[in-house]
Design brief:
Length: 397
């Protein structure tokens, strides 16, 4: 009886770090002083290695024994996680352009005990005595009452590398390009849209595949001989951008340049006007992904002056995520929002949204209470005049 032999197999475990950085600017340092030992200002959360992180700056220090003689800086795990192993680097930026930054780093050096382990959400790494305060205030690190702190996080991950004998590179999908050429060349078109006198040729099957509204009109309707549809409630440039999305699954800006989905790091400029008009078009024609892309782009533009307008848009066109985020932003910046023209518009045209805003404010207050006072009270904004900056700096105790 002969033996059957097989070739040996191999595998390799690769342990490396997934790195990401965040730049945190603290404007108005002198106003942050005196908030109290153990109380901090937090950066916005940023994601590295699948976890959320935040930078905590303590202007009066974290350690009561230091009597506010030092400022403290920490990196905190801001999402759920157990035994997250990571490397860290904190850099206080020298603003004199001399390059003499103050750097505390795990990277590029041998670690006796390995990477730092964060046990749970809220675990931190950093320095209680990051810099003596009286020296900081006379240094080149403080300029125009502004501090700049750069942070790098390297999350340790392990993966099994199994070599393939015949790797095949699969190109990116070009389906959108092919369908887009149908639209551009009008090959096989069987429907015409008349938008304010400008005509657009399209294909019923493509539209029906992408839109539940078009599917009902073209495939389920008995009026099959219809060859031209008049669109009276939309501008030609908006309808053109909508057709571009239907065929190519991407957006275009006002200048007909393609606009990639919001996950792309390189986006050409696009106006709030076009996005809001496309949001209305997505709602009218049941284009769910288009609505979500518009919501994502509008969320990136939210500020005190626009949040009222965005709330009205979200409420009108069933943009639930944009509405929830806008309500939360308005609640957390209540005093400044109440002084904006957008709030006056809400009072006049969307009074029902005011009650929803009040409920969100109450929810923010509940969050403050359940977190042991870790967020600044929303109602406290009204007593001190609020923060007029469009992008606030939240202080947490």
């Amino acid at each position: 009886m002969s033996e059957i032999s097989t070739s040996p197999t191999t595998s390799r475990v690769v342990t490396e770090t997934v790195n990401g950085s965040h730049k945190f600017t603290i404007q108005g340092y002198s106003l942050a002083k005196g908030m109290g030992v153990g109380k901090h200002i937090a950066s916005e959360n940023f994601i590295v290695g699948g976890y959320q992180w935040a930078i905590y700056f303590y202007p009066d220090g974290k350690n009561p024994e230091d009597n506010s003689a030092y400022v403290s800086v920490f990196i905190a795990l801001a999402s759920e996680g157990t035994d997250v192993r990571a490397l860290f680097e904190l850099t206080l930026v020298d603003q004199s352009d001399n390059g003499k930054h103050k750097v505390h780093s795990h990277f590029d050096r041998s670690l006796e005990s390995g990477p730092y382990t964060l046990k749970y959400r809220g675990s931190m790494w950093g320095y209680k005595r990051f810099f003596r305060r009286n020296l900081l205030e006379t240094s080149n690190y403080l300029k125009d009452d502004c501090l700049k702190i750069n942070c790098t996080v390297g999350v340790v991950v392990s993966s099994v590398d199994c070599p393939r004998l015949h790797p095949v590179r699969v190109p990116e999908s070009d389906m959108g390009m092919h369908f887009g050429s149908l639209l551009e060349n009008m090959e096989g078109s069987d429907i015409i849209f008349n938008v304010a006198g400008e005509k657009f040729s399209a294909h019923k099957l493509v539209l029906a595949a992408r839109s539940s509204v078009f599917r009902s009109e073209f495939l389920e309707s008995s009026d099959e001989g219809k060859e031209e549809i008049v669109v009276s409630d939309m501008e030609p440039v908006v309808f053109k951008a909508m057709l571009h999305f239907v065929y190519r699954d991407t957006l275009m800006d006002d200048g007909d340049e393609p606009l990639m989905p919001s996950s792309s790091s390189c986006q050409p400029p696009v106006s709030e006007w076009l996005i809001s008009k496309l949001l209305a078009a997505a709602d009218k024609y049941g284009l769910v992904r288009l609505r979500q892309l518009c919501e994502s782009l509008l969320c990136e533009k939210i500020d005190v002056t626009l949040v009222g307008e965005f709330l009205a848009l979200a409420d009108c066109y069933h943009a639930t995520e944009l509405k929830a985020i806008s309500l939360r932003y308005a609640a957390e910046n209540l005093a400044a929002v109440m002084r904006s023209d957008g709030f006056e518009y809400l009072k006049e045209h969307c009074p029902s949204l005011q009650s929803e805003l009040l409920k969100t404010v109450a929810g923010c207050e509940d969050d403050c209470s359940s977190a042991g006072g870790k967020s600044r009270s929303v109602w406290a904004q009204l007593s001190d005049g609020g923060d007029t900056n469009e992008r606030r700096v939240r202080s947490r105790t």
